[in-house]
Design brief:
Bound molecules: flavin-adenine dinucleotide
Helix content: 25-40%
Number of domains: 4
CATH architecture of the largest domain: 2-Layer Sandwich
CATH topology of the largest domain: Uridine Diphospho-n-acetylenolpyruvylglucosamine Reductase, domain 3
Structural class: alpha+beta
Largest sheet: 7 strands, antiparallel
CATH class of the largest domain: Alpha Beta
């Protein structure tokens, strides 16, 4: 990058809002995927005005810009593949308002998801999207990926709660879209177009979301299974019964073992899988629903069902799920988590297919799932330095994607496409859908400076 442009960018954000020291460039060269690439400069804007000024320079000079929150995405979405600017939005971290009467909150993109959860809870409200990474994931990042989480099975994903956005476009213009809590159907739904666009259409600088009343009570259960496919069948049976839990998660034996070794929670090591469940609602509704779930679990060969007696026991059960990724990631030098998703009726079949694929390619795969909505997380462990193992992992991943699509599913139910799945998108999008995608990108970012080299 030419020194005069570098100076111009630093003048916009101030010297404490920019760095191109090599250790910082390295720190921002990767995310939670195994990909990496160095940017030329890292900028930390503090306002929409600064973001807009940066984009005007980037547009004029045709410099790539990669928006970044906490960099926890699992698909290489924040790796600056073509260098240029990494724009980190974490300094814009104010909760601007919480409106308990209209049930909305307006935040800057650097607000951490969990901090919004806490602020909403203080006024008796809830912000449902709850990625397992909620302690670090930013609101901008969750809009960028349209994140979901354990509660998605009942409450939906980020998109379902988005009411309005301020977005800085590729040429620096500021676009304000959405009408807050009002019902409105005017024009194209631009808010939902930006959601999940992985920083390829604009930089989000303000977000208005819908909040909902907190459920009065919750109950947590754990069920153990000797056969992993029974776990999958039990999930489908619970949904078929007309019960929608507020969370319904699955962990297989290898994940249980890793969590137990790391955290000593007293998990059973001799079972093939466990389901972790939460139901919520009025206090008096919880006993009957717990009984109905227990009956379905037993009918599907659960060997044990534990119902948490209080908040501490519930927390203990959920600790297992929250520690799963880090416990697995400790076992080998590299880990990738796929998120192919299938109809819940195909969950048991997909689990079997993943295990067959792991065996056929001699690859270590643990299965974790937001099972209630068919969102599988096959967690693949490997060593990137072993080229043969990398080839086998790639072949196994490709087969997982194909199987999910064959079973009527999707490449990604949660993490997005990024670099990791870019080559597979055409398996799901036909030529017409790819053409429309490219046309949208061309209309909003004709010079291709926003997060280039990714799925578009
Ligand atoms: C242990 C672990 C557990 C996880 N669990 C879940 C889960 O349960 N559910 C789930 O959905 N994901 C999960 N993830 C993935 C990830 O945490 C989420 O996608 C999260 O939303 C990313 O937030 P972030 O702030 O880290 O965003 P980043 O990784 O920094 O960015 C994600 C994408 O959003 C874009 N972006 C960031 N900020 C902006 C902005 N202001 N404007 C425009 N684009 C922007 C980026 O360019 C990128 O494409 C998990 C990841 C890990 C490591």
């Amino acid at each position: 990058m030419h020194a005069s442009i570098r100076r111009e960018l630093i003048d916009i954000v101030g010297t404490d809002g920019a760095t191109d020291r090599i250790e910082d460039l390295v720190a921002y060269s990767y995310d939670a995927s195994p990909q990496e690439h160095l940017a030329d400069i890292i900028l930390f804007p503090a306002s929409t005005k600064q973001v807009s000024a940066i984009m005007k320079v980037a547009d004029r000079e045709v410099i790539p810009v990669t928006a970044r929150g906490s960099g926890t995405n699992l698909a290489g979405e924040t790796v600056p593949l073509r260098g240029g600017i990494v724009m980190v939005l974490t300094r814009m971290d104010r909760i601007l308002s919480i409106d308990p009467e209209n049930l909305t909150a307006t935040v800057e993109p650097g607000v951490i998801n969990y901090d919004l959860q806490l602020a909403a809870a203080q006024v008796g409200l809830m912000y449902p999207p709850d990625p397992a990474s909620w302690m670090v994931a930013t609101m901008g990042g969750t809009v960028g990926t349209n994140a979901g989480g354990p509660r998605t099975v009942k409450y939906g994903v980020t998109r379902d709660y988005l009411l309005g956005l301020t977005v800085v476009l590729a040429d620096g213009r500021v676009l304000k879209i959405g009408r807050g809590p009002l019902r409105h159907v005017a024009g194209y739904d631009l808010v939902h177009l930006i959601c999940g666009s992985e920083g390829t259409l604009g930089i989000v600088t303000e977000i208005t979301v819908r909040l909902i009343p907190r459920p009065a009570a919750t109950r947590t259960l754990r069920a153990d299974f000797d056969d992993l496919e029974d776990c999958g069948r039990a999930v489908a049976a619970i949904i078929r019964e007309g019960i929608i839990p507020s969370a319904l998660e699955l962990m297989d034996q290898s994940i249980i073992g890793a969590v137990e070794r790391a955290n000593r929670l007293g998990l059973p090591l001799d079972v093939e899988g466990i389901l972790l469940m939460e139901v919520d609602g009025d206090p008096e509704s919880l006993d009957p629903i717990t009984e109905r779930i227990s009956t379905v679990l037993s009918a599907n060969r659960a060997t044990k069902v534990i119902v948490a007696r209080d908040a501490a026991e519930a927390e203990h059960i959920w600790k297992a799920r929250r520690g799963a990724f880090s416990a697995m990631a400790c076992l080998r030098p590299n880990a990738i988590t796929e998120d192919a998703t299938v109809p819940v009726t195909q969950l048991a079949t997909m689990i079997r297919k993943v295990n067959e694929i792991a065996e056929r390619h001699n690859v270590q795969i643990g299965v974790l799932a937001h099972a209630g909505d068919g969102n599988l997380h096959p967690l693949i462990l490997f060593d990137q330095r072993d080229r043969d193992e990398v080839r086998r992992v790639e072949a196994a991943s490709a087969e997982i994607f194909r199987e999910a699509l064959t079973l009527g599913g999707t490449l990604s139910g949660e993490h997005g496409i990024g670099i990791e799945k870019a080559q597979y998108l055409s398996l799901e999008f036909d030529e017409v859908a790819m053409g429309v995608t490219r046309a949208i990108k061309q209309a909003l970012d004709p010079k291709g400076i926003l997060n280039p080299g990714k799925f578009v």
